Model the fold of this input.
Amino acid sequence: MLKEEIIANMQKIVDHCMGEETAACVATCPMHTNVKEYVRLIGEGKGEEAIRVIRDNLFLPGTLGRICAHPCEKKCKWNEGNSPMSIASLKRYAADHFDLEENWDLSVKEDNGKKVAIIGAGPSGLQAALELRREGCSVKVFEKLPVRGGMLRVGIPAYRLPRNILEREISYLDKLGVEFQLNCEIGKDITLQQLEAEYDSIVVAVGKHQGRVDRSLKNWDAQGIFSAQEYLKEAALTSDVKEAGKTVLVVGGGDVAMDCARTSLRIPGVEKVYSICLEDSFDSMASSNHEIAGALAEKVKFNHAQAIKDIHVDENGCVCGVTLKKCLSMFDEQGRFAPSFDDEDTKELAVDTIVFAIGQGVAGDFAKGQLKQRLNTTFECNRLTLQSVSNEKIFITGDASGESVICIQAMATGRRVAQSVIRYLQNEDLVEGRKLEDTTSYDTKLQMPTDWSTIEGKREDMSELDPMQRIHSFDEVALGYTKEEAKREANRCRQCECKLCMKECIMLNDYTDCPKTLFKEYLEKGYENMDPMIAYSCNECKQCTLKCPNEFDLRSNFMAIKEAYAKDHNDFVPLEVLQDSDATQVKECDEEYCTALSGGSKQVEVKEKKKTKYVFAPGCTVSAYTPEGVEAVVRHLKDSLGDENVGALLQCCGKVTKFIGEEVRFAERNQKAIDILDDMGAEVVITVCPSCFKVFKATCKNQRVISYWDLMHDLIGVPKSSKGIGKTSDVVFNIHDSCVTRDELTHHESVRWVLDQLGYQWEEIERNRANTRCCGVGGMVCTSNPELYEKVYTRRAKDFNQNHIVTYCGSCRGTMQTADKDALHLLDLMFKNTYTSDQAQKRGYTTEEEMWEKRLETKKRLENFK
Done:
């Protein structure tokens, strides 16, 4: 059984790992379009594939590419670099260049015999119609206007959204078999009751076409005063507003106000356009920056922090001017909208036309007495299912539901309402298995730290028509990206995802798609029912934790799982391939291959309990690699610290046993070494092996543990005979730091200091010191999973820019040699002749028999030490 703290750690990873978290652009899009994917494809020059990805989710790509309020861009990671991706413009590029009608998916399910009426041909109604038709329903859309598209058609000016683009994309529904009845007003041409009698379900998708003016003002109904909705609708249908004068004042600070101001400039006879708003600056306005920029370029005259105090009319009841008053604040202390004014701070404007862009409502008179409406004119419905609270057969979507503010959200409610209608028609539960976030924006947990000082690039601006020329027509202003511009913009995308551990760890990629998935499986199935090779393939290098923004500890989980496997098998590693490793540890702890040297004497008799202040523990690998190096270290220590003060212990610390999870055996084997150190009266343990350092540091209660490298740096220096020995060498080394001591920063500094003292040239590499990579031996993966071991050491070898590698770990040296590098241990450079490139060769033992022979030689050298 796993320890409670390990189970808790796994649960923490499952709950908070960002590996499966959605990028902010995708999460923020209410339709959850795969922005990352289509942007990547555009960057790769694969426009046909990009439009397929877009059309999998959106049937209005060209329209949305032009007018979408793109909430995705507001959450783009590039905002941190002050240059968010131009996502909508890239969508438009894909649509304009690659959206061929012959590639449109016209498949629908078999007719299910159900009829659905949709009231309103705006974005939500169109989306609902599309989804329902694909499910096999017979769908008819009733529209009051003579045109399709709702506010897309009569609320958004043609210079932003050309009519042919919109109508072409709506024609997709014609091809699917959706019927339309235009110029049909519900409640007048046909009643809601008639629809209810004829259809199996009804979707109310009316938009906010009911404009508002400020009725608190005297003369609010004078000639020349318009709501934004009626003003824009007339301009959209006729390219003119007959009763508009020469000087227009637009009231409001949002996108609709900008549309009204810029539309006014294109109306015949209009000479000047003013804009007033309560906000005190461009930055605080509700309008999009690009809409404000467009209005400024077209010479709209802005007046911030202003409101109308009085409307003046002439003898004919026509507007002839206004008195403006200063707005002091928009909100009260509780943050509620409650503007305050200075009625004495005024100014006059001569205008003959006023357009109020201060909000709009749903025209719901057709359902009066039948569907319950809120005070804001929207219809009451369940937010998740969008089913009317008044009639289970009727569903509400888009603006009418009270949810939509922008087109893309209206479309998302259209999708949600269609899902509810299908369930209703099939007598299924409307709620089960559904989440609101499936069709709304939500905040992703994905948080990716980024160093923007290392990243170049800025948002690709789109070319536009000349401002002074374009105001003379409703021609489209933005010209779209060229192929080159689109690729540049697309290739700025950070392709946000976490999985940083997955990008680093080869092993994880062999067994899962992210830690969340893996540990969820462990928790659900139990470690006993998981592939044991997963845990035995962990190098225990901690790179996953280093890469993880949340610093999750995966290593401890895998170590605990290995310990549990061993405990379940009588404290013995169950993996057959690792049982030889345990046998090797038995020999490394056996008296035949072990010895202890006390200060000032040859072989120590533990029972004598002579105090030896400094004890050098060379470890198993170095002892089997360079017996002469071990002897030289002892001699250097004795010369520096006093013969009587320095001894040595050739005894396994038990690290391999710990690697393979045999916790009980590790404790026994390690304690054997600790007992000898205690009996020797050791005060300081000196190591050259990183693993020995870590093990003894954790288990020695009566001794301080220090690396030989730190000891030289801090106290005794390098041997006099070694100083400057490498000055004439033609070799430039790369250093490989052991992952075991990646957090022992003094080791890194001391090793480099030693090389400088020796006079050898070396070059730093990126993946080193605390960020070093495992050579592949860690966790005994070299034995448990040789194929993975080869992948790991091959990758590590590619990190170096030199062929000559120096390291201070015996196992790492051997592995780098296996990776075809000229690999030396730092002791080789200290205690042998000057190393030159012509000496490159394979070193160390080549057979197991030779390994044990060298181990015995080390023992002999220590026992014969004088």
Summary: The longest strand covers residues 319-331. The chain has a mean pLDDT of 95. The two ends are 52 Å apart (CA to CA).
